[in-house]
Amino acid sequence: MSERKNIDDALKILVALGFPRAQQNERSALCLLALVNLMPGKSWRQADNPLIGITPMMEFSRDHYGTAYKPNTRETFRRRTVHQFVDAGMATPNPDKPSRPVNSPKFVYQIEPEALALLRTFGTKAWAKKLAAYLSIRQTLVARYAKARDLNRVPVKITSGSEIQLSPGEHSELIKAIIEKFGPRFVPGGILIYAGDTGDKWGYFDHTLLARLGVTVDAHGKMPDVVIYYPDRNWLLLVESVTSHGPVNGKRHDELARLFAGSSAGLVYVTAFPSRALMARYLGEIAWETEVWVAEAPSHLIHFNGDRFLGPYESSDGGVTL
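Above: the chain's sequence. Below: its structure in token form.
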């Protein structure tokens, strides 16, 4: 009985807070109960504010309310309930570390303090008055937390007078280095066509230019992290940014070759690493006929290209080194 009552109460709260019908369901009610750690037998006065991720929310629903969700519904929880909680100012992402990347397994949410104070009055005489006061300031809360999220985004300069903003995290920092350090050194005059974002797959995308080069990609195409066009040589550089996932190995090389098969520009495959230490972990996987760039040594490239570049290099004293 207490299990059902808590779920019904949570649904009433979501309706009172003005959430759309898409969030007026048991999944969203269970997410709200998990956010405030309200187990069966507890009253709303005992609502708490733990830091909790999506998977722990699903486990909370199973362990305390007997509703088990399949692992492949994790994105449904995140995109169709928790995102809306955040957009409404009711939940705060990563209050302990706002710069935590979207794809981090440590990504967490916490009930917003004003919302927690409101929920603790549910079922009491103070509820109606507190609800009216909360609704009067909710847009201010939304604006405040949207501004806080923006402050932690990663600015990336794409031209002298233009920049884009990427979600915070190590992956975005490496993408920034690719565009701002790799590009000017090895692709002078290059034009950025695509830059992925962990929070938004299509972070920056010049569909028109890519189409002019003979390539059309739909929403299911697994794009590389960065695509740069080199007009002087008619090359298309496909760059993978490696911070947690693998490099351009044989399988990925074939995937990209198929995705960009219609390109009128020559394809150049590049794997970018933040450090040589991380690169060392993947050396055995890197495909031949590709390039490797390391952000901590930005003026060098490593060629996995057989004898194409074999030959002496001029030394500083006029001799040669191998």
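The CA atoms of residues 201 and 277 lie 28 Å apart.
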